[in-house]
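Here is a typical protein record:
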Amino acid sequence: MRLPLIFVIATTVIDSMGIGLILPVLPSLLREVADIPLADAALYGGVLVTAFAFMQFIFGPIIGALSDRYGRRPIMLISLLVMALDYIVMALAGAFWILLVGRMIGGVAADTQSTAYAFMADISKPEEKAARFGIIGAAFGMGFVFGPLLGGLLAEFGTRAPFYAAAALAALNLVFGYFVMPETLKDENRRPLSLARANPFGAFKNVSASPLLRRLLVLFFLYQVAFMVYPSIWAYYTEARFGWEPRMIGLSLAAFGIAMAIVQGGLIRYILRWLGDRGTILYGLAFNFFAFIILAFVESGFLAIIFIPLTALGAVVTPAVQGMMSRATSDNSQGELQGVLSSTSALATIISPLIMTQIFAAFAREDAAYFLPGAPFLLSMVLMVLCAVVFLATPRAQPA
């Protein structure tokens, strides 16, 4: 399973890189295709992000259900093919509506992350699932690091270069996967495709029928909303609080991404061994609680840059929760579960930036009654308390 595992990890990294790879050129590209000023380009860019997340919300359970019916291999290969073609179309786009359609298609194709988690569930023993889900989280973190860095370098060759690079990466990984990726879904675990379950609302209803999964799903959503505070306001917060320039902001995000990859790809195995699933989740919630307090009030940029990698030590909650939910789900519904989790993350991606940026704006204005750019971190801190309350009321997990 070594080569298939490499393929699945590479697919996750490429999915994550594809998002960040084009970010450095988006302002210039939007002004180029729509002939608009920078301020309007930011609004147009927000529309692209929302459209991408909305499509992930809608299609997460559908992709998961398809992988439960037809297997992990065809879903991942077809998604990579669509992704490669989509990036080529976006590279050739001459109008904003083409970019919008491209981002919407990209949101569907990038839902392979749910299939990657289902693949991990297929090949893992129950006690191995949380740690192996951490590997997928680490791969996503590495893509988050390398995407913007590579995109910034490729921008020197023009606004379209990152799109061609993303298309080439997806195509090369498609060829690699075609030769090494086996089918991991057993015939006895294939589930008939049901339209009632292959939609976000039907899938949510089915998964939440279990009291345990319902509470863990609420916890997962609240945690995602809280953790999205980083990409939502980090660039604005660090400029307002520390006066950082884009280069320092990029380096700080890279440091956080690397630290998160180390935690989810390696350290989580030892933390799970020492604390178990429940202890790991409670540790992660408590660590994030104090990290959010510090970030809300810290005034020294030097202390912040030292502290930023340490905040990743709390990034153990998501894989631990996913591990608990996977063990409580039958083998023929792993894709559906991961699709629901993908949709939940997408929903948090839609909601959290709207809330966090509004709070930031209210407390970062020059005429604010109390100047506190880190105020959104206080909301995330409160959400950690809510997560703990929900989790402590959750019954003990039982294998499906």
Remarks:
- The CA atoms of residues 285 and 384 lie 6 Å apart.
- The first helix runs from residue 2 to 21.
- The domain at 2-183+198-392 is CATH 1.20.1250.20 (Growth Hormone; Chain: A;).
